[in-house]
């Protein structure tokens, strides 16, 4: 009789890839995935610990899922990922419903955890923080069939003072170009049209394989040759290794989305230094100027932290002026989260929560106005769009929801086509003209 498996994957896309590998291993061992957690015999929760809100969400999710041991069919609860790695002792002690904890490098040991559960034992598997999945691992794709994340490296060496990732994910380590290409070929054969390349620091890809010199452009040249892949998008491009060669490739290679995601975090030089970032304001401005002056428009996304310890009103104002000046197409803003075990977390000059929240809303409102202006400027322009859902619109019409090539999955806005007819299907890539731009979304029509 088939055993039913339920799962919840929290946090970033990098975590989702680990979840998909665990699902693949469990499926190979007789489990069938169910979306209805109440009927699942085994439930896996893959957790996040990046910021305080993520920890709270992870703990609340574990507690909610633990109820299925009483109210549902659940006989085993496995908690994996970053929260497990960081708080293994506390989790086992505080939440007795947890049957197994799996660390960030031990997802390949999920069947060891299952075996322990079947023998009535609790297990904590944390070794092998140097692990990284490769093309030989089974993987169940949980994203839509036409779009998949591919993790090209794991861990991080940057040592930002606000970040716990190196402690829970280990040192930076890259997969080989051949391993990644083989996986992308397999995804293309399964119908994937868009791949999104991810790592903690994507521009550093290959430095551990090539005497400190990145290999990202070498990798991209191999991946653009894969038949069936139409869009290649990159996230988390740390500014230090963002080379002219990479920019030229983005501009000139049709399969590469004209989309650059650079997590800058701040722009004030003192704050950048205290964050242990390698680039100062002049480096950042020089890079952004190059991207803005490229011969084709490149969509620019960033993420910013407000309320870093010691951040003054003047430093925050400098950040606001910078954002107004650059006019990022998309921006994520985070309030600084005081993380245990980080240098910034130990500082005594923490910014009060109410001031952090106020700064967050101020910067978000600045960006909302910029995004609306940017999207209005798109009116009349032609782009390609990927259709993701067909919904019922008004008056028995059909509404297509999707993304422009300049919009990344999950983090950016959406594109809508009203009264789209029944010829359009999810996964289609269509040529569209933007008719209306709003703060986060656009409305478009199909053009021949």
From TrEMBL:
Which SUPFAM superfamilies does the UniProt entry name for this protein?
A: Radical SAM enzymes
- Domain (MTTase N-terminal) ranges: 3-119
What EC number(s) does the entry state?
2.8.4.4
| Positions bound to [4Fe-4S] cluster 1 | 12, 48, 82
Residue numbers binding [4Fe-4S] cluster 2: 156, 160, 163
Cofactor binding notes: Binds 2 [4Fe-4S] clusters. One cluster is coordinated with 3 cysteines and an exchangeable S-adenosyl-L-methionine.
* Cofactor(s) listed in the protein's UniProt record: [4Fe-4S] cluster
Annotated localization: Cytoplasm
- Molecular-function GO terms, alphabetical: 4 iron, 4 sulfur cluster binding; aspartic acid methylthiotransferase activity; catalytic activity, acting on a tRNA; metal ion binding; protein methylthiotransferase activity
The Gene Ontology CC terms held by the record are: cytosol; ribosome
Residues forming the Radical SAM core domain are: 142-373
Coarsely, its chief localization is cytoplasm
Q: Does the keyword Magnesium apply?
A: no
Family designation: Belongs to the methylthiotransferase family. RimO subfamily.
| Described purpose of this protein according to its UniProt entry | Catalyzes the methylthiolation of an aspartic acid residue of ribosomal protein uS12.
Protein's UniProt name: Ribosomal protein uS12 methylthiotransferase RimO
Q: Which organism is it from?
A: Veillonella rodentium
Give the taxonomic lineage as stored in the record: Bacteria, Bacillati, Bacillota, Negativicutes, Veillonellales
């Amino acid at each position: 009789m088939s055993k039913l498996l339920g799962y919840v994957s929290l946090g970033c896309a990098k975590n989702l890839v680990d979840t998909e590998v665990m699902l693949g291993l469990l499926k190979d061992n007789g489990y069938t995935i169910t979306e209805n957690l109440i009927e699942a015999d085994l439930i896996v929760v893959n957790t996040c610990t990046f910021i305080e809100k993520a920890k709270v969400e992870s703990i609340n999710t574990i507690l909610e899922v633990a109820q299925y041991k009483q109210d549902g069919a659940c006989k085993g609860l496995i908690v994996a990922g970053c929260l497990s790695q960081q708080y293994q002792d506390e989790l086992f002690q505080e939440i007795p419903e947890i049957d197994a904890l799996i660390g960030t490098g031990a997802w390949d040991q999920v069947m060891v955890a299952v075996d322990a559960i079947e023998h009535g034992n609790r297990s904590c598997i944390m070794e092998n923080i140097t692990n990284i999945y490769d093309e030989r691992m089974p993987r169940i794709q949980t994203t839509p069939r036409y779009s998949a994340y591919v993790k090209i490296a794991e861990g991080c060496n940057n040592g930002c003072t606000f970040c716990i990732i190196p402690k829970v994910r280990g040192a930076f380590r890259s997969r080989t170009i051949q391993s990644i290409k083989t996986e992308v070929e397999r995804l293309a054969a399964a119908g994937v049209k868009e791949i999104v390349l991810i790592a903690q620091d994507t521009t550093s890809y290959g430095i551990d394989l090539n005497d400190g010199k990145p290999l990202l452009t070498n990798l991209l040249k191999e991946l653009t040759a894969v038949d069936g892949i139409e869009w290649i998008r990159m996230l988390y491009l740390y500014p230090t290794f963002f080379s002219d060669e990479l920019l030229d490739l983005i501009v000139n290679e049709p399969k590469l989305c004209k989309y650059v995601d650079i997590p800058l975090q701040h722009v004030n030089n003192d704050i950048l230094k205290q964050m242990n970032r390698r680039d100062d304001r002049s480096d950042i401005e020089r890079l952004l100027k190059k991207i803005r002056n490229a011969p084709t428009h490149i969509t620019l996304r960033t993420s910013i932290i407000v309320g870093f310890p010691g951040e003054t009103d003047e430093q925050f104002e400098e950040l606001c002026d910078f954002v107004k000046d650059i006019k990022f197409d998309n921006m994520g803003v985070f309030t600084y989260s005081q993380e245990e075990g980080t240098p910034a977390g130990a500082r005594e000059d923490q910014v009060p929560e109410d001031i952090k929240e106020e700064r967050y809303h101020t910067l978000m409102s600045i960006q909302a106005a910029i995004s609306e202006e940017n999207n209005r400027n798109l009116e009349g322009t032609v782009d390609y769009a990927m259709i993701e859902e067909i919904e019922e619109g008004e008056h028995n019409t059909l509404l297509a929801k999707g993304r422009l090539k300049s919009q990344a999955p999950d983090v950016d806005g959406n594109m809508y086509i009203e009264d789209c007819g029944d010829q359009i299907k999810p996964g289609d890539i269509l040529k569209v003209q933007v008719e209306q731009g709003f703060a986060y979304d656009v409305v478009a029509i199909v053009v021949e």
